[in-house]
Amino acid sequence: MKTKDYDLIIIGGGMVGSTLACLMAQGFAQNARHAKKRIAVIEAFEPSRFDPQQPYDLRVSAISAVSRQILQQTGVWQALQNKRISPYEAMHVWDGTGDGEIHFNAAEIGVANLGHIIENNVIQSSLAEKISQFSNIDWLCPQRLKALRIEEDHARVTLDDNTLLTTHLVVGADGAHSKCRELAGIAVDREHYGQSGLVAVVTTEVSHQATAWQRFMPSGPLAFLPLADGSSSIVWTLPSDRCPAYVAMDESKFKSTVAETLDYKLGAITSVSQRAAFPFYGSQAKNYVKPRIALIGDAAHTIHPLAGQGVNLGIKDAAALAKQLLKTPTADLGLLKGLRRYERARRGDNVTTMRAMEGFRLLFGHSNPFVMNVRNLGLNALNKLPVIKNEIIRKAMGV
Ligand SMILES: Cc1cc2nc3c(=O)[nH]c(=O)nc-3n(C[C@H](O)[C@H](O)[C@H](O)COP(=O)(O)OP(=O)(O)OC[C@H]3O[C@@H](n4cnc5c(N)ncnc54)[C@H](O)[C@@H]3O)c2cc1C
């Protein structure tokens, strides 16, 4: 049986796991104390190479200013800028049940944009390209985690083809259904929202004006995220039992329904891609760490994507864990004391953001006339309070 030793094994080379791999590889290379350390990334699927002719990925993320800074640190941001990224300068949010609305503008807070809309597969494949340039990372793909055994001074990882690896620390970055979390015996608190997100790429009669548009309805928000070629990526939150009917809906009916739901802010929908749907739920792992185990990204927590924060929280997890690991005074990265510092640094932000998203979901989900009235009045009042409004947007940008 083949066996190989590593200092760090990352399960999952998605956006979050790959960010951690790049930060750690860089940190190891810059410090003589870590010069001999090696990393393995285990990823189930090879990310597709970027081709400017390929249709837009149905999954996109609104990348915040803080995530951009972290991706700049990995050197990947520069590569992303030469691909398809779309800065958005404004955000317009309104209540579908009344006249309440709020508008956020980058110029009002003295920045060039509020964030960037980037396809998930473009981020992941750019990180994978970067990983291939590090001599201290082995990218093991396609490979899957099959078994995990925690010993006192190391962890043993078995892959699907029975390759056996040993390491001081295993990081679970393998998404919401994390096998690593399950094998490590870490329980998760999960709340199903009964909502799913329908995603598609559409073109519209009226330009998106580099603005993210979001209309809140009691059944859930409809968001239009601006893409670089003038089209928009939509995320439409619907009750899970009604979502399949919208995915299967006749194309012309779907286009007119979407345009109407967006109050014709961007006129008619002129084309629509294939559609897909994802269930939404909030979750928090009971522990982010155990001896020789740390969870990051969706493996540790998921939130409702109504403010596009999920991967941004995960990227912050990666940066916080890297910072902690690179400070470790001993050769062993898997000691609980250091890992706990990572959990303390991140759990508060992750839980607060999850609760805030749940608060928005419940507030905008109310169809009680009194609540609707107060909500609409509140939105309009907030729109006229630049100090508070700008503070909200700074928080969303992670600055
Ligand atoms: C509709 C929708 C819209 C969203 N919009 C936004 C947004 O605008 N902004 C935002 O910040 N967030 C958004 N999110 C959330 C965001 O997509 C997730 O938070 C993010 O993808 C999590 O990244 P991750 O790397 O932690 O996990 P994942 O993206 O799930 O990656 C996990 C990786 O692990 C691999 N893997 C899984 N199991 C194994 C295994 N056993 N062995 C080896 N490899 C394995 C997978 O192949 C994958 O590559 C949205 C989510 C949804 C559903």
Account of the 3D structure:
This protein is α/β, with parallel strands linked by helices. The chain has 2 domains: 3-65 and 121-190 and 281-357, FAD/NAD(P)-binding domain; 87-118 and 193-280 and 367-397, D-Amino Acid Oxidase, subunit A, domain 2 (D-Amino Acid Oxidase, Chain A, domain 2, 2-Layer Sandwich), CATH 3.30.9.10. The protein is built from 11 helices and 22 strands. It has helices spanning 15-30, 65-74, 76-81, 120-132, 179-183, 243-248, 251-261, 310-327, 336-365, 369-383, 386-397; strands at 3-5, 8-11, 39-42, 60-63, 85-88, 90-95, 101-105, 115-119, 137-140, 145-150, 155-159, 164-167, 169-172, 188-204, 211-217, 220-226, 232-239, 269-272, 276-285, 289-290, 293-295, 301-302. The strands form 4 sheets. Strands 6, 7, 14, 15, 16, 17, 18, 19 and 22 form a 9-stranded mixed beta sheet that branches. Strands 9-3-2-13-21-20 form a 6-stranded mixed beta sheet. The longest helix is centred in the C-terminal third of the chain and has 30 residues, at 336-365. The mean pLDDT is 93. The structure holds flavin-adenine dinucleotide. Flavin-adenine dinucleotide (FAD) binds at residues 11-17, 42-45, 61-62, 144-145, 173-175, 179, 197, 199, 235, 278, 297-298, 305, 308-312, 314. Flavin-adenine dinucleotide binds next to helix 1, strand 4, strand 14 and helix 8.
SSE order and pairing:
Blueprint: E1 3-5, E2 8-11, H1 15-30, E3 39-42, E4 60-63, H2 65-74, H3 76-81, E5 85-88, E6 90-95, E7 101-105, E8 115-119, H4 120-132, E9 137-140, E10 145-150, E11 155-159, E12 164-167, E13 169-172, H5 179-183, E14 188-204, E15 211-217, E16 220-226, E17 232-239, H6 243-248, H7 251-261, E18 269-272, E19 276-285, E20 289-290, E21 293-295, E22 301-302, H8 310-327, H9 336-365, H10 369-383, H11 386-397
Parallel strand pairs: 1-12, 2-3, 2-13, 3-9, 6-15, 13-21
Antiparallel strand pairs: 4-8, 5-8, 6-7, 10-11, 11-12, 14-17, 14-18, 14-19, 15-16, 16-17, 19-22, 20-21
